[in-house]
């Protein structure tokens, strides 16, 4: 069996941007400090060779950014001189001038030994010793000739990939990066982190289809099936496809009748068998396409399973058995078993008879509804006393419900198929468990910020994902207040429903006779009552968090989350601030940027500390922490990067190579001043990013051309955006401890995003009957020819802009004791 490239479930990426075959060889020693991982390599190299080697691993020659980072590197040197990532520009006027990191930045942290750097000593700067290495005994730095050889330490933003499954980490001939490499005849599977390929014997031993219980299948409606498999031999990956073949008129059809039977493909996915004869199951979901009916008023059909052993080198010999009524009595056919859809009794031969029928109408299904947290907080109705006058601080919801909705019954390649017959809205009700007083379901207030409007377009068969910010109504507050019937209730059920203004007609098995049985989902939450803190207490906390997403994760979705926590108590004052911009879609998911800035000032011991960092594409650009009697630190970094990768994208059972480039310019403004009496912190990450995609066919079932251009326009582009927090504290007495604090905290998130489109053009293979002999048995199987051409718009969005003020508060003369 030829090795095959991975194919995920339809619309699912086989490996996210964080999964890769880029690797790092096993180090002589390693350590993790904060978000940074350090690997020491004992091979003696020049400074330039050490730098190149770390870059080839996806890291950099280590640059100490703080005392803690320097000590982490020193702890793994093993008593040997070690190169670090600093060098001196030529033509300097002094031995201490012109030093830079491997990225060309001026270092913000230095740890030279006494008298260093000295360029060899006894003379002024002469450009002799222009590279830095760490002394083994003390961890201090020394300048040396760059041509000297030493061991070295590489630095990574996360733990590098460790090759598994028989692969080794190395640089192939003509390559420039370390990759996981497999023995001849095999390839490295990124998602499984193992080598696959080689001979494999496969047995299909079961097939069951959910919708077979009714005996009816409706065009443009979904179905779910499970296929049982066993493999013996080498671990391998291949495509499993599910389809429908027109049922012959009798048990002994003529050759002419067999050749006239029509077929269609419903769904497919990639499966990897380990080859150890263990039982595995593959779940296949799909939409019954119009080709399964072919213009007939109805059609009797059997299911078939097709195993395709290769993508790049597909031939008829690489396709395994088709199960249907004709092959049910063969030796191979008898190995497969299915449950009778009516009685549930297992029977030999995977023959499942169904009738394919036209769509009964349009059906809206709420597929999923889940809370962002199982514990929700009911804040006091009165605004906090410390909110600044006239401030437009965003209200905090009870919780955020994450919803997935789909619409079925329409053919997605017809004009206007995405437009629903009416506008669909969503309602959210809540009820106590138990319902003391028999109050019944009560409505929650959904999206008062008008973040999400009702929907009137859903691409047929596509999952549309969005969230709803749910707030309490005055009636709910009364019910849960002292004296109300729900005053003591802690457990609640929440019901989310799609409110459809037009008649629905769906598969009765799923949607019921009136089409509405699949419009609602119910989940549970636990309620906690919150209250605003008073001006005299033992602690005070000012916290606000934010999260939201735009678009659909089945195509492209951008998410933003962040928050600010500012705490005062008898031990001191603390501020923690963070923000993350993430992108997910058919290509996978990853974080565009992450930033954090934390600081504290404690009473005993009298120490101030800070920790801050910034990542783009998972690469750590800044990681800095320090603890001292007082700390002052500012940083302004602008960074540009383009990341181009190739992935495999599945549309039913199509395998398409997609080359995508993510271009981003990211910046980070930060300032922290901390002392034993005050903290001032400002954190603003900002991002400008774009995505371009081109696709080419990897021939299996479809010919395809994909093109895309999506722009992520801006995040926190104004200087006033981000998080600003100023905290001041005065120790009034130490016995008993009494603090007076004053603070001013604000947090603003601004985003304008998602403008572009993704288009896919597909030529589909048509299935016909052919025959061949295998395992001594002559049987008919599906063979292929190209037929129709279709064009699909997978994603189109004209942008979104949003600004949210999370915090705008100040307080003074607040006493903690």
Automatic annotation (TrEMBL):
Sorted UniProt keywords: Disulfide bond
Family annotation (Pfam families): Lectin_C
Claim: Disulfide bond is one of the keywords in the record: yes
Domain C-type lectin positions: 33-155
Signal peptide from the UniProt entry: none
PANTHER family: MANNOSE, PHOSPHOLIPASE, LECTIN RECEPTOR RELATED (PTHR22803)
Name of the featured protein: C-type lectin domain-containing protein
Source organism of the structure: Pyxidicoccus parkwayensis
């Amino acid at each position: 069996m030829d090795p095959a490239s991975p194919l995920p479930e339809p619309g699912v990426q086989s490996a996210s941007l964080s999964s890769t075959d880029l690797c790092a060889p096993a180090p002589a020693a390693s350590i993790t400090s904060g978000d940074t991982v350090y690997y020491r390599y004992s091979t003696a190299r020049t400074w330039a060779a050490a730098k190149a080697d770390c870059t080839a691993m996806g890291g950099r020659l280590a640059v100490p950014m703080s005392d803690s980072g320097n000590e982490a590197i020193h702890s793994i040197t093993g008593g040997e001189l070690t190169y670090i990532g600093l060098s001196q520009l030529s033509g300097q006027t002094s031995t201490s001038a012109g030093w830079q990191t491997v990225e060309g930045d001026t270092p913000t942290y230095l740890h030279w030994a006494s008298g260093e750097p000295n360029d060899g000593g006894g003379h002024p700067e002469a450009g002799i010793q222009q590279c830095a290495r760490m002394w083994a005994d003390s961890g201090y730095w020394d300048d040396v000739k760059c041509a000297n050889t030493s061991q070295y330490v590489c630095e990574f933003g996360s733990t590098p990939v460790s090759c598994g499954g028989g692969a080794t980490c190395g640089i192939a001939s003509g390559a420039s990066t370390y990759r996981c490499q497999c023995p001849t005849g095999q390839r490295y599977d990124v998602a499984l982190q193992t080598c696959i390929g080689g001979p494999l014997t496969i047995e299909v031993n079961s097939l069951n289809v959910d919708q077979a219980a009714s005996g009816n299948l409706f065009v443009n409606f979904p179905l779910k099936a499970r296929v049982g498999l066993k493999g013996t031999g080498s671990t391998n990956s291949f495509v499993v496809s599910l389809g429908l073949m027109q049922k012959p008129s009798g048990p002994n059809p003529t050759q002419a009748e067999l050749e006239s039977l029509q077929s269609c493909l419903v769904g497919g996915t990639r499966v990897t068998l380990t080859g150890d004869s263990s039982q595995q199951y593959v779940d296949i979901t799909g939409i019954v396409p119009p080709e399964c009916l072919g213009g007939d008023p109805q059609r009797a059909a059997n299911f078939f399973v097709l195993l395709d052993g290769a993508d790049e080198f597909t031939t008829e010999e690489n396709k395994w058995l088709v199960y249907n009524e004709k092959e049910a009595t063969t030796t191979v056919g008898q190995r497969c078993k299915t449950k009778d859809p009516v009685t549930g009794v297992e029977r030999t031969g995977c023959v499942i008879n169904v009738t394919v029928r036209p769509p009964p109408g349009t059906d809206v299904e709420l597929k999923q509804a889940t809370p962002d947290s199982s514990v929700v907080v009911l804040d006091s109705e009165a605004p906090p006393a410390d909110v600044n006058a006239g401030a437009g601080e965003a209200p905090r919801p009870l919780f955020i419900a994450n919803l997935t909705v789909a619409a079925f019954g329409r053919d997605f390649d017809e004009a206007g198929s995405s437009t629903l017959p009416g506008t669909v809205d969503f309602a959210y009700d809540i009820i106590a468990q138990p319902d003391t007083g028999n109050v019944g379901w009560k409505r929650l207030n959904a999206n008062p910020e008008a973040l999400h409007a009702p929907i009137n377009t859903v691409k047929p068969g596509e999952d549309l994902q969005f969230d709803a910010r749910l707030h309490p109504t005055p009636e709910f507050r009364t019910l849960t207040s002292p004296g109300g019937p729900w005053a003591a209730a802690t457990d609640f059920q929440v019901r989310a429903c799609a409110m459809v203004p037009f008649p629905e007609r769906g598969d009765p098995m799923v949607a019921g006779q009136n089409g509405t049985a699949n419009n609602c989902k119910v989940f549970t939450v636990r309620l906690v009552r919150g209250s605003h803190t008073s001006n005299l207490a033992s602690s005070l906390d000012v916290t606000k968090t934010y999260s939201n997403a735009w678009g659909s994760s089945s195509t492209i979705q951008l998410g933003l989350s962040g928050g600010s926590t500012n705490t005062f108590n008898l031990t001191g004052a603390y501020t923690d601030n963070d923000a993350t911009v993430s992108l997910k879609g058919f290509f996978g998911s990853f974080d565009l940027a992450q930033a954090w800035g934390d600081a504290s000032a404690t009473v005993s011991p009298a120490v101030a500390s800070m920790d801050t960092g910034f990542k783009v594409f998972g690469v750590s650009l800044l990681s800095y922490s320090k603890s001292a009697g007082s700390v002052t630190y500012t940083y302004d970094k602008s960074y540009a990067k383009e990341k181009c990768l190739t992935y495999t994208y599945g549309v039913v059972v199509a395998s398409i190579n997609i080359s995508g480039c993510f271009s981003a310019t990211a910046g980070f403004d930060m300032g922290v001043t901390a002392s034993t009496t005050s903290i001032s912190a400002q954190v603003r990450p900002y991002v400008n990013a774009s995505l371009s995609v081109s696709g080419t066919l990897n021939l299996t079932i479809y010919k395809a051309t994909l093109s895309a251009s999506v722009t992520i326009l801006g995040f926190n582009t104004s200087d006033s955006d981000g998080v600003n927090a100023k905290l001041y504290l005065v120790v009034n007495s130490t016995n008993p401890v009494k603090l007076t604090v004053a603070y001013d905290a604000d947090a603003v998130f601004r985003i304008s995003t998602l403008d572009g489109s993704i288009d896919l053009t597909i030529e589909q293979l048509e299935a016909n009957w052919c025959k061949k002999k295998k395992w001594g048995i002559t049987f008919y199987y599906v063979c292929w020819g190209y037929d129709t051409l279709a064009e699909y718009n997978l994603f189109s969005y004209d942008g979104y802009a949003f600004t949210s003020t999370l915090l705008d508060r100040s307080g003074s003369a607040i006493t903690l004791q």
